Amino acid sequence: MEIPILQDIVIILGLSIVIILAFTRLKLPAILGFLIAGIIAGPHAFNLISSQHEVELLSEIGIIFLLFVIGIELSLKGLASIKKIIFLGGGLQVGGTILITAGISSFLGLPLNTSIFLGFLFSLSSTAIVLKLLQEKGEISTPHGKIGLGILIFQDIIVVPMMLFTPLLAGETPNILSTIAIMAIKILLVLVIVYILARYVAPKIFGWVVKTKNQELFILTVVVFCFSVAWLTSTVGLSLALGAFFAGLIISESDYSHQATANVLPFREIFISFFFISVGTLLNLEFFISNILNIILLVIGVILLKMLVVGGTVVILRYPPRTVFLALFSLFQVGEFSLLLSGVGKENGIIPENVYQYFLAISIITMGITPFLISAAPKITYTLLKAPIPSQVRRRLENIKKSSQAEEEFSEENLHDHLILIGYGINGSNIAKAARKAEIPYVIIDTSPESFEKAKKNNEPIIFGDATQATILKHAHVQEARVIVIAISDVDATRKMLTTVRQFTQTATVIVRTKYVKDMEDAMRLGADEVVPEEFETSIEIFTRVLKKYLVPFDEIQEFINQIRSSDYEMLTSMKKSPHSPALQHLNIPNREIVTLKVQRDNRQIVGKTIQESGIGKNFRVTVLAIHRDRRYLTEIAPDTIIQQGDLLYVFGHPNNINHLNNQLTF
Q1: Mean per-residue pLDDT of the chain
Q2: pTM of the predicted structure, to 2 decimals
C-alpha cells in the first residue's frame, strides 16, 4: 500500500539533514536550515512535496508538543507570577502594534480594514521559534524570558478574538458582541477545568500509572493527556497550542513532570521541524526576487516598529534597560499564528494577493534572522548600554528602575565592609536570612519586580536595578564591600557583572553561583574568587553523608572534600579513570554492616538487662552504637545501659551475627 506522505517525509527530512549538516559546519542555526529546506522543497521552487496539507498537520503537532513542554516547565504558580506581564504587557504590545501599523498603512493608501488587519498580523510574534531558542539557552526563567513568555501567551489568546473580528472587517455583520461573550464564558470554563485537572485529577492518574512501572503506559498517558486538553480548547474555538500549554501546566503540578518532559522531547524535536519546513514552503521565490528591495525596506520597517513597541512596553513594566533590549531582540519577528490568520483574511478578501506575498516574505525573513539576533542580543545590549547617551536620558532610565524607591528604605551611608547579594531567588533569600541572623550588613540587588516586592514585604534592604550597570553597583557601595555574591542563573549577565565589579574593587571577595562546572574557568578568569557549581556541590553533600554512614573519620571526610574543591572538582569528573584515593580506604569495611534492630520480643536474657548482662558483645559479637527510645536518642552507650522492649538498636557487626541477634529480638 502506497502512503504519499511517507515519500514527502523522506524527501524533506533527508534534504534537511544535508542542509543542517552544512549549516552546523558553518555554525548557523538549525532553524534557518529547516526554513531553507522548506523553500527548496516548496511549490514555488522544486515542488518536491505533494502532500502539503498533511505536512502542515505534522507541523501543528510540533507546536502542540513545544507549548506542552513550556507549560510543564512553567507551572501554574509560575504563570500566576507573570500575570501582570501577560495582561498588561501583552495588551500594550498587541494594542500598540495594531494602532501604529494601522496608522502607517492608512497613510500609505491602504483601506482601513486592510490596515487594521495588517496590525493584527504584525502584532503577533513566533511562539514556536522564540520559546524554542530561549529554552535551548536556558533563559525561560530569566526576566526577559518571562517577558517573552507572558507576551506570547497573551498573543496566543488574543488571536481567537482577532479571528472572530475578521469577518466584521470584511463587511459581514454577525452579532460579534454575543459571539465574544460566549467565547469568554467558554474560556472561563476551560480555565476552571484546567484548575480541577491540575489540582485533583492529574496527580492521581499519574500516581496510578507510575505504580504499574510500565514506561510505555506512562508515555501513552502523557501524550493522551496533552492531546486531550488541546482538543478540549480546540472545540471551544481556542488554539490547539494554547490547549497544549494548559496541559503542560496541569502536569507541572504533579511529581512526575520531569519524566514527562523527558519522554515528550524526542517527539517535539521531530514534529517541530515540520513547522519550520512548512513555513518555508509558502515563500514565492519569483515574487521575492522581483521585489527584493521593497521587501528588505519593509522588513527593516517592521522590525524597528515591533522593537519600538516591545521596548516601550517593557519600559512601562518598569524593567531595567538591559532587560528592555533583550526582550525587544526576542519579539521582533512575525509569528506562525499570523500566517494562520492571514489565510482567514485572504479568504474574506481583506488582504490583496500582492500584500499577502509581501507579508509572507516579511514573515519568513524575520523568522529566519531571529536565531541570529537572539544569539547576539547580549553582546549588542552590552555595547548599546556602554554607548554615550545624554545624561537626562540616563537619569530617566534610572528613575524607571525605581532605585531611588529602594534607597529610601535604608541608609546607603551605613554601607561599609558589607555583603552585596545579587539576586533574590531561593539561594539569595537564604543567604540574606543567614546574613541577618549573623548580623552582617548587606544589601540586595535584583531586577525582577516580583522579587523586589517580595523583598520589600520582608523588609529587606534591596535596590531595584541591573547589577551589570556601574550606576547600580555604585548605589550599593561596591568599592567598600567585603564580599559580593552573584546568585543568578543568567550566565551572560554574570560575566558582565564580574567585569563591572572588578572595575571598582580588586579587594572584595566575589563568590559566584553557577549551574555547571564547565562555567567555572570562565568566571575565575573574569575575576571570581570562588565559584560554587550546583552540579557537584549537591554530589559532595550527598557523598559526605554516605561517608558518615560508613563511619569514615571526620578529618578524612574533610580532607576528601578539600581535595575535590582544590582540584576544581576534577576528582569527581575523572573518577572512573583515576585510582582510588587513600582517603576512600574506609568506604567499604569488609563483612561489616550498620543496621537497626527493633526489640519486639520480651527475651528475658536481653530485655531488662544491661548491655553487659545481656552478653550482646560477648555472645553475639556486635556493638550497640545508639538506642532510639521514646522519641529520643541515647548516644552515650555504656556497659550499664539497660535494654527495654520497644527500643530501636543501632548495631554494628558481621551480618550473620546481626541476624542471629535479630532472631532473639523478634517474634
Answers
A1: 81
A2: 0.56
